[in-house]
Design brief:
Layout lengths: L1 H11 L2 E5 L17 H4 L3 H5 L7 H9 L4 E5 L9 E7 L7 E8 L11 E5 L8 E8 L4 E8 L8 E4 L3 H13 L1 H4 L38 H10 L15 H32 L1 H9 L4 H13 L1 H10 L5 H7 L18 H12 L6 H4 L52 H10 L14 H13 L21
Antiparallel strand pairs: 1-2, 3-4, 3-8, 4-7, 5-6, 5-8, 6-7
Bound molecules: heme C (2 copies).
């Protein structure tokens, strides 16, 4: 039984291993992936495994690798880089083969300093990696630096320098991002604790400023836009022109890799936590079970039930591969069904009415004057996971930080100041925060609210201006 489980894991794990030492291991601080607090709330055996059976830490590192040896796990919807190809003729079945006929879907560029590494993805030779000494493009023949022992067959698929984006992405990330966002994307870089708001912890897989509807993940373009524009009003800088166009794309893939790693870990933990957290252990022992009974139980769970769940983590409707892929489809993008309503005094008046209305009640959080001081900001919230009250009043986000509703009188919009950006913020909400999605509002009404919100910085302060008619402050 166990042997079979191990084999299932092996087939699941088709991955290219990428040595990512150069230029990044030297960054000096925590060059290892850390586990989340949630993993640490599990009993040791669930974290580290029992006997031969891997626990959360190993299940994650088997698939994602370590910062020094990253895994390009093929199940992930990440563009790892590399040129795909296949064996174009089966080699003669001699004892050892030093020449191999291959065809590639892209150009093979041989740079002196970088070895050309071919990994077998399918067939008997997989997952062997061989090095090409010389590549003859005319003949489609690769001379290898060493003979192959297990022979591939015609049609077996290979990848040349697989994971090259992953490697470059990691190097760029370590240089430009990790001092805030942390090696693991856990927002615990050395500078992070001084920042408010804190850098994003990617491991929830949640990004705030997206062009996608409320249920969808961030699209690649959303993360890219944040890198291009930065997040105004926060320490998140813009990386244009520091990063070139293709470098931006590669960093986006690395951020997605870290986000997926974090989510994969969270899903594992959520399977284990109900019965194998430290708290669960205490409860089970209080009701008469012994520690070794619980651990035996865990053993069975790791060997069987958990393996079945892992299969489902990636594929299927809610699988991570599915949801991250779907976020890039046109269906996921917010498309207003009405053109922007012209910014007139009448439109701003309707917008303000909606803003203050009982049904919509933006003022409940943002305040009547838009200063971000509505009644909701004075209540004490309960953490939905631990069911305890937060020590400080105000709204909290999924990262457990106090999350002040935006002061709309300043005219600084983190997700961008174009009307369509504000439309998206209102239609889909701000993910991971208490700014809700108003997806049932008519799009025309959202435009009225956008017009009003954009006029708030120009409104006279209540009591100071001559006008109680709030929308008259700007001309269209
Ligand atoms: C000086 C610190 C700092 C550096 C350096 C930095 N960031 Fe950020 N980043 C932040 C902060 C702070 C936020 C959170 C803004 C917020 O919550 O509104 C953030 C947010 C983000 C987000 C989340 C946007 C969203 O929609 O939720 C992404 C993605 C991101 N950063 C990527 C990067 C990448 C990639 C790099 C390196 C190329 C980088 N950051 C460098 C501080 C930094
Ligand atoms: C339950 C509380 C709540 C309600 C209700 C609410 N908001 Fe927010 N809003 C927030 C919070 C919290 C943030 C800050 C989120 C962040 O970026 O971390 C925010 C941010 C915003 C932003 C800033 C966007 C940006 O790019 O910086 C705008 C604009 C906004 N809200 C408009 C509205 C409007 C308009 C309504 C009513 C249709 C509304 N909000 C209702 C809590 C709320």
């Amino acid at each position: 039984m166990l042997v079979q489980t191990q084999r299932q894991i092996a087939t699941l794990l088709t991955a290219v291993v990428v040595t990512a030492m150069s230029g990044c291991g030297q960054s000096g601080f925590d060059s290892h992936f850390v586990s989340s607090d949630k993993t640490e709330s599990l009993i040791k055996e669930a974290q580290n495994g029992v006997g031969d059976l891997p626990g959360v830490n190993e299940l994650v590192s088997d698939r994602f690798g370590t910062p020094q040896q990253l895994n390009a796990w093929m199940k992930l919807p990440v563009d790892f880089g590399g040129v795909s190809g296949s064996v174009s003729a089966a080699p003669e079945a001699s004892i050892a083969v030093e020449e191999l006929s291959l065809k590639f879907d892209g150009e093979v560029i041989q740079v002196d300093s970088e070895p050309l590494l071919v990994q077998f993805v399918t067939g008997a030779a997989a997952p062997a990696v061989v090095e090409i000494k010389r590549w003859s493009a005319e003949k489609g023949v690769a001379s290898l630096t060493a003979a192959m022992e297990t022979l591939p067959a015609e049609g077996d698929t290979v990848i040349l320098n697989g994971g090259s984006h992953l490697k470059t992405g990691r190097q760029l990330y370590m240089r430009h991002c990790s001092h805030c966002h942390g090696t693991s994307g856990d927002a615990a870089g050395p500078t992070a604790e001084y920042l408010n708001p804190r850098p994003r912890d990617y491991r929830h897989g949640v990004f705030k400023f997206t062009s996608t509807n409320a249920q969808s993940k961030a699209a690649r373009d959303d993360i890219r836009r944040v890198l291009q524009n930065g997040v105004p009003g926060t320490y998140m800088p813009s990386f244009v022109p520091m990063l070139k166009d293709n470098e931006l794309d590669i960093v986006v893939e690395y951020v997605r890799f870290l986000a997926l790693r974090g989510e994969f870990e969270r899903r594992l933990v959520s399977e284990l936590a109900p019965d194998y957290s430290k708290d669960a252990m205490a409860n089970r022992m209080a009701s008469g079970e012994t520690r070794s009974e619980v651990v035996n139980d865990l053993k069975e769970f790791l060997a069987e039930d958990l393996q079945d769940s892992i299969e489902g983590f990636m594929d299927g409707t809610n699988g991570l591969a599915t949801v991250w892929t779907n976020a890039n489809l046109p269906e996921a993008t917010i498309t207003p069904d009405a053109a922007r309503v012209p910014n007139s005094a009448e439109s701003r008046r309707i917008g303000r009415e909606l803003y203050l209305s009982k049904a919509i009640n933006c003022a409940d959080c943002h305040g009547i004057g838009g200063k971000g001081n509505g009644p909701q900001t004075t209540i004490f919230e309960k953490n939905v996971v631990t069911e305890t009250l937060y020590p400080e009043p105000g709204l909290h986000d999924v990262w457990d930080n106090v999350n002040q509703p935006r002061n709309l009188t300043l005219g600084i919009y983190r997700g961008g100041r174009r009307p369509i950006d504000l439309f998206c913020r209102i239609q889909a909400g701000i993910k991971g925060t208490r700014m809700p999605s108003f997806k049932n509002l008519k799009h025309e009404d959202i435009w009225h609210i956008v017009n009003y919100v954009l006029s708030i910085p120009f409104e006279p302060e209540p009591g100071k201006g001559p006008t109680p008619a709030p929308a008259a402050a700007t001309t269209p």
